[in-house]
Amino acid sequence: MEISSFHSLLVAEKEIAKGKRENRETLAFEENLEDRLHGISRLLRSGKVPKVYYKSFFVYVPKVRKVIYIDFQSKIIQRAIYDAINPRVTKTFITDTYACIKGRGQLAAFDTLYGWLRATRASEGEWFYYKFDVAKFFYRIDHEILLEICRKKIDDPRTVDLIKYYVCSTSKPFGLPIDADHLTITEAEMLWDSGIPIGGGLSHMLGNMYLDPLDQYAKRELGIKRYIRYMDDIIIVDNDRERLQEHGKEMTAFLEERLRLEFNSKTALRPVRRGCEFVGILIYDDHAILRKTTSLRMKRHLRNRAEEYRQGKITLEEANATVQSYKAILDRVDCQKFEEKLFNDFVLTRNPKGPAGEEGQNGCYADY
């Protein structure tokens, strides 16, 4: 079985450990790495799964979420599942779904939608977009429906059983009632038959799989030409407002009846000329600008990366990867002054007393 092989687990461990070599849990696991991985492999091949341990914390940007994360050993197993399954299941997805898919992602999603909106300028009459956002998406995923989707897309019953172990946890509930408050709900009020942990290594793959039936319905049955999804954010574009409204009703009914989900109050139908918020960017038919929250998040993240570099927790290459990803975004929007200030303020210095074998470095990193 591909997932349980020593090689698959070793590759998964290297991915999970990236940027976390100084983490106490990582260091403890890697003290006897080969024996530990061989042990996990033997357990999985005998049909057993190492016990998973959960911890949680809240994040407040861009919205309040309870992130549930797992122990290092379980992360390795989930990464091995992801590596084996994700390339296969993504081949069954529609072209215009973009989150967490190799070769697509945030920038590709922006480019596609911006291209559609720009093209409307050459057409007569008014164009509209209809934006949908699924309410409490990860917390409302129905376990029974998800596992049925997995059985259709994954031809190995043992792999489905392994996913079931992590989804249908017997030790911790992940689901929320639709009207629940993340900050005040008690664990006794959480749901056992729905929800998947956001911090788990499988969450985004399973989320994409769960909404694929809606994608297929919109494209194949409703025949929507301009339909785009980035995880649980969906936008459709048309020059017929009534047709958009009808598609909205049909998609809402499908979501509720087939997937047991609901769209939230952010759902809105507006003219393209008013701008459309997507992947952290406000997109018009002739230009695009960053959302204020996106620019603040960029500033905060770069400060954190600079501090991680100073402490020796990340390499120069890893810091540069963050810079280049942000530069790719900023090159697409109108924000020259913000870009100049953002990168001028980004200074990398290495603590002279950093990790063994690394010399102290000072200076501004300017490969952008």
Question: What does this entry look like structurally?
Answer:
- This protein is an alpha+beta fold and 368 residues long.
- 46% of the residues lie in helices and 11% in strands.
- The protein has helices at 6-17, 24-30, 33-45, 72-89, 105-119, 137-140, 143-153, 157-167, 203-221, 241-258, 292-310, 316-330, 336-344; strands spanning 54-59, 65-70, 128-133, 227-230, 233-238, 268-271, 276-278, 281-283, 288-290.
- Helix 1 (6-17) crosses helix 4 and helix 11 packs antiparallel against helix 12.
- The longest helix is centred in the middle third of the chain and has 19 residues, at 203-221.
Report how far the terminal alpha carbons are from each other.
44 Å
What is the average of the pLDDT values?
A: 89
Outline, from the CA principal axes? Answer: globular
- What percent strand? 5-15%
SSE string, helices as H and strands as E: HHHEEHHEHHHHEEHEEEEHHH
Strand adjacency order, main sheet: 4-5-3-6
Rg of Cα set: 22 Å
Helix count from the secondary structure assignment: 13
Biggest sheet: strands, sense, closure? 4 strands, antiparallel
Return residue spans where pLDDT drops below 50 for at least 5 consecutive residues: 355-368
Structural class: alpha+beta
Number of distinct beta strands:
9
Descriptive keywords:
4-stranded antiparallel β-sheet; 3-stranded antiparallel β-sheet; 368 residues; globular
